[in-house]
Design brief:
The protein is an all-alpha fold. It has helices spanning 13-22, 28-40, 43-49, 57-65, 71-78, 85-96, 100-107, 113-118, 122-131, 134-140, 146-151, 160-168, 174-182, 184-187, 190-198, 204-210, 216-222, 230-245.
């Protein structure tokens, strides 16, 4: 408790985490001190601290549970790479809340979709990624923020031909390729699975795992493709040779 400044406005991310931890202290006095300190904090100051990766897991989850009505908190939390999945799940309903008036204002602005997205906050981009159309998804899958581009894959409107396109694109981020590879329904589609293996940006362990499921003609092409990693080509060659011996 001595590690926490008397003035709540002077707290850093580590100390804010200590305050949250104090809320679960065994004695009532400590819990009351923490509650009063948190209540006195400037919400805008909290919003800044919520972006700090040094903030404890418990603190991130705590503020995610209390972020309703604080759009800036939601955006800050979602932009923090340290936010655990539990916190993200808690925030999802807040992101998905409709804002008809805002959407109408955007529609009347005369801006195209790319221009509108460029003006959006992280939270607004995440919302659009999860609910937008194909054009929006195609743009947001390239967003530099991980929370934004990963949210595209949660969009219920996404089609397998889009997933195949993402799988083929050498500009697709490795995190997206990994997520596609983990989806059993998507990789049951031969074109998607082959596209992943043929993409030189796909992590080697994923490509190698799918090789035994490919046809001989695909393996023969892969083992001669200089665009692919040596490990992938070597494993493809071994499988071709094994198939030849098994005749």
């Amino acid at each position: 408790m001595n590690d926490v400044p008397k003035n709540p406005g002077d707290l850093d991310a580590r100390q804010l985490g200590i305050l949250v931890q104090m809320l679960n202290a065994p004695d009532q006095k400590t819990r009351d001190v923490a509650a009063r300190a948190l209540k006195k904090m400037d919400p805008e100051k909290v919003s800044v601290l919520l972006r700090d990766q040094a903030l404890s897991r418990d603190a991130l989850v705590f503020f995610a549970m209390h972020a309703s009505g604080r759009k800036d908190w939601v955006e800050s939390l979602l932009s923090n790479p340290s936010l655990p999945e539990e916190g993200r799940v808690t925030l999802t309903p807040l992101v998905q809340e409709d804002s008809p008036a805002e959407e109408a204002a955007e529609d009347e602005s005369g801006l195209n979709i790319s221009q509108r997205i460029a003006r959006m906050s992280v939270g607004e981009k995440i919302k659009l990624a999860m609910k937008g159309d194909k054009e929006a998804r195609t743009i947001l899958i390239k967003d530099p923020n991980r929370e934004v581009f990963m949210s595209v894959l949660s969009n219920p409107g996404i089609k397998e031909n889009e997933v195949e396109m993402f799988s083929k694109n050498t500009g697709t981020k490795a995190d997206i390729l990994r997520a596609i590879a983990r989806n059993r329904e998507w990789v049951s589609n031969r074109n998607i699975m082959l596209s992943l293996v043929m993409n030189p940006k796909t992590p080697v362990e994923i490509s190698v795992r799918f090789l035994p499921r490919l046809m001989k003609k695909d393996l023969e092409f892969i083992m001669t493709s200089r665009a692919l990693p040596m490990a992938v080509r070597t494993n493809a060659r071994r499988l071709v040779q094994a198939k030849a011996k098994g005749r």
